[in-house]
Write a structure and sequence with these properties.
HNH endonuclease; alpha+beta; single chain; 25% strand; disordered C terminus; 286 residues
Length: 286
């Protein structure tokens, strides 16, 4: 299973920080990857030029690394996605197995011998669309979704007990989704299109992620063959207060019947036109 090369649409430089709005003279700004670098196939790229100060870049890098290494580390290596730590590829991974008596045992294994699997989450829609207050929820409501190659997992743990590999930090995962949606919204729609609501969550000043981030109440949609990641505007995002919000649907590893996420980026100022209907997608090659 490999991922096809692709490049997202090009955006002009922002020349200030899209999170803290720093624009001081002589301040260096870095390019912000919209889809995290480590979730892109080799040869592909997609970023918002000169759009983050170094301080904010350090913050976003920390929570992205948690997701890239812990949540998606093995799957990324199976797909041969990008990495800045090439020397760590093909290194054994620690796998913890759950025995029949409930005991744990550790074993080092090569990634090639570990089943292909991908984690996702079926969450309730964002609280802002369900009449919740901004501070009413700290934890996500929903279920964890595990996708794996048919037959591989059964062979890996034939005794039907469990194994543990990597980690999931829900808040970091939500902040990564927030960063994807916020940076894409600025590149695609422009900063004058909405009043941003995500920067405090992205920078760690707010932890009430379920208010602005959630899932599709209809459940997981069918797989999208040859589509690696998908992102597009929500057709309607109207809160109980009657305010129209700009929101995006994000689906990571869409080719494998993974969940979709709804992310509210801010209060909409103008209609997102036809040219903003869909992002050019990327997908795994045959």
């Amino acid at each position: 299973m490999t991922a096809a090369s692709w490049t997202g649409e090009a955006f002009p430089p922002v020349d200030h920080c899209i999170y803290a709005h720093r624009d001081e003279e002589h301040t260096p700004f870095t390019d912000e990857h919209i889809i995290p670098f480590g979730l892109l196939p080799k040869g592909g790229d997609w970023f918002l030029p000169k759009s983050s100060c170094l301080k904010c870049n350090a913050i976003t890098t920390r929570f992205e690394d948690t997701c890239l290494r812990g949540t998606f580390g093995v799957f990324r290596e199976h797909l041969d996605l990008k990495t800045r730590r090439k020397k760590n590829r093909n290194k054994p991974r620690e796998v913890w197995f759950k025995g029949p008596d409930g005991s744990d045992s550790k074993q080092e294994m090569q990634v090639a011998d570990i089943p292909r699997y991908c984690l996702g989450f079926n969450w309730l829609p964002p609280g802002i669309l369900r009449g919740q207050s901004p501070t009413s929820e700290l934890n996500f409501s929903g279920e964890t979704v595990l996708r794996y190659a048919r037959g591989e997992l059964e062979k890996f743990i034939p005794d039907k007990h469990g194994f543990r590999l990597g980690s999931v930090r829900m808040l970091d995962f939500a902040r990564m989704l927030a960063k994807i949606a916020h940076s894409y919204a600025i590149g695609k729609c422009g900063e004058n299109a909405f009043e941003p609501m995500l920067p405090d969550l992205i920078l760690g000043r707010d932890e009430h992620a379920p208010y602005l981030i959630g899932g599709d109440p209809r459940g997981t949609p069918p797989a999208q063959p040859r589509v690696l990641h998908d992102i597009y505007p929500m057709s309607a995002a109207i809160g109980d207060d009657g305010i129209t919000y700009l929101g995006f649907v994000i689906r990571l590893f869409a080719f494998w019947e993974t969940p979709t996420y709804f992310v509210i980026v801010g209060r909409k100022k103008w209609r997102v036109g036809p040219r903003n209907e869909r992002l050019a997608r990327s997908g795994p090659s045959a």
